[in-house]
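step=encode ok
step=design start
structure_in=
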């Protein structure tokens, strides 16, 4: 210890004590104090809930079921639920103890867009509760929880869909070259509300309640879709004119699959349940729309997935630093899996079934890699809880 002091006389006794403490810790090794866990908590942490939750819900509805798949999906839903509860509590503590830092997130031209993650996390866990949690909690309790999460997530999602673009239009300093996949995050939650709201239709009273929910979901479908159709060309334009850019933003290219896959899912879920609320021939037209819309959009989603994969592999060979943006490899892919499931149900095409299975296999592999890296970077090292380097 004397040698260390001689070589680095600027290190105080307090710092040496902190170094010894950190060196003896098995967890949060790079944090000076475990209390720093909540100092720089950002809304993009909720992407881990989204990625874990979609793994569960996609498994529950996969057109080809395997032994043990539902049990594994239920365990993943439980994990996503615990993550959601933990992050909500941690975020509340962050706002109480570190309010100045928390208030700065919505002013940041990049971080502000990730406020779309918390509502989507709630909606995803809510859907999993209805699909899988009823086996554990009972149908009524699962339905009550989903109703609360859907209502809260929908309200917050509509707020982000309005507030974040407003801030971008009036306060954030951006240009065409700064467009990235994260710009889609605040406008996608209403699309998730549309697809998960379709699951609630059978539980609502027949008549005006169901029809109102159905049409409200289609309105949110349109809100999110048209906003996404404005943003996606900006991302394409940025790639064409300004090229790939920083390696850390490359995973966000996969976010583009989110509104594409989720819209296919929503169109087919709403169309499949439309007969519960709408009269014929409207209900039949809505069901047909799911396929007539879904197949062409799937074509573009496959094109984008191929481009994103090629760019990701190219960047990985040169160095792709790990960050929470890697969760972009999970939820957007999961929405494509659920979209393929919807198409498989309505067309009975075996190709769609096996495409869904192949997509789910990729989703599982991506989740394992990202979850492992996140656990190591957060729980073991604690680096993911540190402020981003300038």
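sequence_out=
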């Amino acid at each position: 210890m004397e040698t260390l002091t001689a070589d680095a006389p600027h290190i105080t006794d307090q710092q040496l004590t902190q170094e010894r403490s950190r060196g003896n810790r098995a967890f949060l090794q790079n944090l000076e104090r475990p209390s720093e866990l909540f100092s720089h908590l950002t809304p993009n942490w909720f992407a881990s809930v989204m990625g874990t939750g979609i793994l569960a819900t996609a498994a529950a509805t996969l057109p080809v079921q395997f032994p043990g798949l539902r049990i594994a999906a239920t365990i993943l839903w439980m994990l996503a639920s615990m993550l959601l509860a933990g992050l909500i509590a941690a975020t509340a503590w962050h706002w109480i103890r570190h309010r100045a830092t928390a208030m700065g997130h919505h002013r940041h031209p990049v971080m502000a867009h990730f406020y779309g993650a918390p509502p989507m996390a709630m909606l995803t866990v809510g859907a999993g509760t209805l699909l899988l949690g009823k086996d554990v909690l009972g149908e009524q309790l699962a339905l009550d929880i989903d109703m609360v999460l859907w209502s809260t997530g929908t309200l917050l999602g509509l707020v982000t869909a309005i507030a974040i673009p407003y801030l971008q239009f009036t306060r954030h300093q951006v240009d065409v070259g700064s467009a990235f996949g994260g710009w889609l995050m605040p406008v996608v939650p209403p699309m998730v509300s549309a697809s998960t709201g379709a699951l609630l239709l059978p539980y609502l009273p027949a008549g005006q309640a169901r029809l109102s929910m159905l049409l409200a979901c289609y309105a949110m479908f349109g809100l999110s879709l048209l906003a996404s159709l404005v943003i996606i060309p900006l991302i394409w334009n940025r790639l064409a004119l300004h090229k790939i850019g920083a390696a850390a933003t490359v995973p966000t290219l996969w976010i583009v699959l989110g509104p594409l896959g989720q819209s296919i899912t929503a169109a087919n879920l709403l169309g499949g349940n439309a007969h519960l609320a709408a009269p014929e021939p409207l209900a039949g037209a809505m069901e047909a729309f799911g396929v007539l819309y879904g197949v062409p959009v799937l074509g573009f989603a496959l094109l984008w997935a191929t481009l994103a994969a090629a760019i990701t592999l190219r960047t990985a060979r040169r160095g792709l630093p790990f960050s929470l943006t890697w969760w972009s490899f999970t939820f957007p892919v999961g929405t494509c899996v659920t979209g393929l499931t919807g198409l498989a149900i309505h067309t009975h095409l075996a190709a769609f079934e096996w495409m869904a299975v192949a997509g789910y296999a990729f989703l599982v592999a991506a989740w394992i890699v990202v979850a492992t890296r996140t656990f190591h970077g957060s729980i073991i090292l604690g680096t993911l809880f540190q402020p981003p380097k300038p």
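step=design ok
step=annotate ok -> The chain is about 70% helix and 0% strand.
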